[in-house]
Amino acid sequence: MPLPYCTYHSTQSRDHRGQILQAEQYKQHHFYVHVQYYLQTGKTHQIRAHLAYYGHFVIGDGKYGKGDVNRRYHETRQALYSYKLRFDFPTDAGLLNYLKGQEFTVENVPFREKYFPEIPS
Length: 121
Hints:
about 120 residues, alpha+beta, 3-stranded antiparallel β-sheet, two-stranded antiparallel sheet, 5 strands
């Protein structure tokens, strides 16, 4: 089942708490989907709460997830990972200005091979 607000590339929406999210759905498998989220507001639990609200849970999530699914996949840690971090400050960032325009990317996401082996690292 496709995810609400995640079935079209570069879809932007507000979640149930009014937080702005942008998402892209990449791969859908039998029971899980690879989604790339772009955080626009940076609220605590933003992605996890948004997905859970629509009935889609992060595998391994003990707070918003489903225990039976976590046990089925033998996950005790969230299959949620920030593999890329980019700093685009719209205004002066003060002490953090040295990060403006910087982008950091992780080479290997720990669970990628298990769930999405066809996606290159």
